[in-house]
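Slides due. Your pick:
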Amino acid sequence: MSSHRNVETQYRAVRENAGIFNRSKRGKVRAEGADCLRFLHGMVTNTVESLAENEGNYAAVTSARGQTLLDIWVHRLQDCIYMETEPGLATKFIETLDRYLIADDVALSDESDTWAILGVQGPTALELAGRVVGRIPADLPEHHTVIRAFKGTPIWVTARSYTGEPGCDLRIAQDHADSLRRALVTAGGTPIGWQVGEILRVEAGIPRYGAEIDESVVPLEAGLNRTVDFDKGCYIGQEVIAKMHFRGRPRRYLTGLLLSGNTPVSGNIIVNDKTVGRITTCVKSLRLNRVIALSIIRRGYHEAGQRVLLDDGSEAEVVNLPFV
């Protein structure tokens, strides 16, 4: 099968049925101890203390200047707080938290290699996963977890979407992952590669740490408003983020671009010979059949309809997210 056909087959699987994503390289951190909830609540941008057992949310860890050090998924489980971040960032996360641990009863451990994560995304994702691990409620809210089993091994099933389609992540002990992956494929899931995952993510307008999100942006400048609880008490970086929110004026915005060319490009975004932003991820959209990009653009140039130039001299138009 040609690589283009393969990409189309994978893409269609997620849009119409269910695709299987290997997310095992993600950073995984466990926190436990009597002061765990209170400590973490003061460290991240979203609420932790008010999470009920098996609830979760999406949060960020910011510096005192409001820079985005990490984005994390927080899950309150029966015996710990389990958190997940981009691959390779668990050490950075633990070191950042360690800096503020003084007399708190909190133990942090890097469990990145202990667990595997298999994602299932698509209109039939929950149904397909349910056939393998036991029924999953169709209305399981985003970030909520249910515990199931596969051949006697416990599995944590968390509702998550990173493709614009419904889905879930299945966390299982590393040595059972291959067996679970084979069972999901046998049940009708299609394995999905990185390239198709990126196309789906960009079409859905979802930022990723290392692309749209890094330490140069405050969460509100990278489309991460949903990571911030504006009613919670103090956390590191709160002052900067609150001021930006209540004045309603981030300096930059996460925006979409429709490109005129036929090939994905990278580089700067220019208006009247002035650099006003940068392309962060650029792909050929299979739904729109044209090149699209996520970008960070300065305020004043970020509104839909704005025409811009790219480094290679081609034109693009700013559009609202998501594309699909």
Notes: The helical segments are 3-16, 36-41, 90-98, 125-133, 177-186, 194-203, 238-247. Residues 251-324 form a domain with the Elongation Factor Tu (Ef-tu); domain 3 fold (CATH 2.40.30.110). The mean pLDDT is 96. The chain has three domains: 3-24+114-202, 27-110, 251-324.
